[in-house]
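Here is the promised in-class demo. Please do not try to memorize the tokens; focus on the logic of going from shape to residues.
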């Protein structure tokens, strides 16, 4: 019986892998995570998503053979575990979308969790899965490295501020004349406040990366803030309905944003279907010691979209290392003349360095960029 059940969960894992851009290795670790997220009596609903990840109720009834009341009961259970996204589309039709493992992780750890044996064990499972993914990528390093240039950005960095904290003066913005932006392109919002003000529905939950690290016994060294992961619009309504977050006002959201800025956290926007030309669905505020997309913690390829590149004014830099200490992506170092230098390969244009520089000696070069990173090869 156990073998038969495990085989069913393996089939479910294959179906859930279709919902994301990355196919997770189907190991005992992944199966145990799915057993936590998906009750055995709900497996039949997941099987109905085999050929189509997003479906209407009529489609689900046809593909599962289940009655509507049975589907709604299972959806309610699975949505609470972050496995299904159930929200109406623009025409008002309810759509049921199967979510990938990565989203299940985010929703699980976005909700305020007790530091209990149950959740520590779950965090340990995800940590073990991370190690298995890392091993898979290292084993197939050439394959992942060769496709790095073809990968789309998973997040977009928002400049933290246009004002230098220490002096109160404007940070110098230099237009990159070499970058030709087509006139028909509508640029995404470049201020986090603009994004917040666009949405009527805003929800905040715990930073899933930080809470995950808390449960692993390795708490954040940069900030005490936990509740600063925002979802927007339809995503806000969903996460609030399922208990992953709470709806808040724009004023409270902006207050939290200001607090994250003072702790040097990086604002990152996430877009619908990971397409930066579409509307934003979430905002994260990332540190350097917990963010799984940062240079120091990434286990696989990461592509970031941004609109700025930091540049040190060499004649004004005093070599105080403030920028180095605050750089989320370890992209700054001192040269032989004790002048800060920016590694363009890793600068994600957040402007944290320019914000905290006591001399206001860092300008930001404006122009759309992509930063592509892959962990160093270990074997």
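The designed amino acids, position by position:
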């Amino acid at each position: 019986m156990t073998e038969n059940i495990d085989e069913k969960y393996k089939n479910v894992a294959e179906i859930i892998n279709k919902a994301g851009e990355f196919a997770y290795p189907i190991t005992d670790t992944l199966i145990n995570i799915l057993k936590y997220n998906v009750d055995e009596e709900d497996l039949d609903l997941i099987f109905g998503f085999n050929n189509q990840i997003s479906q209407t109720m009529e489609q689900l009834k046809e593909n599962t053979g289940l009655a509507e009341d049975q589907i709604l009961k299972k959806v309610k259970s699975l949505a609470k575990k972050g496995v299904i996204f159930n929200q109406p589309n623009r025409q008002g039709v309810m759509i049921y979308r199967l979510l990938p493992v990565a989203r299940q992780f985010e929703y699980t750890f976005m909700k305020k969790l007790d530091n209990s044996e149950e959740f520590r064990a779950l965090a340990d499972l995800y940590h073990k899965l991370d190690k298995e993914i890392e091993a898979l990528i290292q084993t197939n390093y050439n394959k992942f490295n060769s496709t790095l240039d073809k990968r789309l950005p998973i997040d977009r960095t928002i400049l933290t501020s246009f004002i230098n904290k220490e002096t109160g003066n404007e940070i110098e913005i230099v237009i990159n004349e070499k970058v030709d932006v087509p006139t028909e392109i509508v640029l995404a919002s470049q201020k986090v406040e603009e994004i917040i003000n666009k949405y009527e529905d805003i929800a905040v939950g715990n930073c899933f990366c930080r809470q995950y690290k808390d449960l692993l016994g390795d708490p954040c060294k940069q900030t005490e803030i936990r509740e600063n992961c925002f979802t927007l619009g339809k995503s806000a309504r969903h996460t609030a309905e399922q208990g992953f977050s709470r709806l808040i006002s724009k004023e409270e959201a902006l207050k939290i944003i200001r607090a994250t800025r003072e702790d040097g956290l990086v604002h990152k926007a996430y877009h619908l279907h990971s397409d930066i030309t579409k509307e934003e669905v979430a905002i994260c505020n990332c540190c350097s010691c917990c963010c799984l997309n940062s240079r120091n913690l990434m286990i696989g390829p990461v592509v970031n979209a941004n609109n700025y590149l930091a540049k040190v004014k060499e004649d004004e830099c005093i070599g105080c290392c403030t920028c180095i200490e605050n750089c989320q992506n370890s992209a700054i170092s001192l040269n032989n003349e004790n002048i800060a230098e920016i590694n363009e390969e890793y600068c994600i244009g957040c402007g944290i360095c320019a914000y905290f520089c006591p001399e206001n000696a860092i300008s930001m070069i404006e122009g759309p960029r992509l930063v592509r990173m892959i962990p160093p090869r270990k074997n």
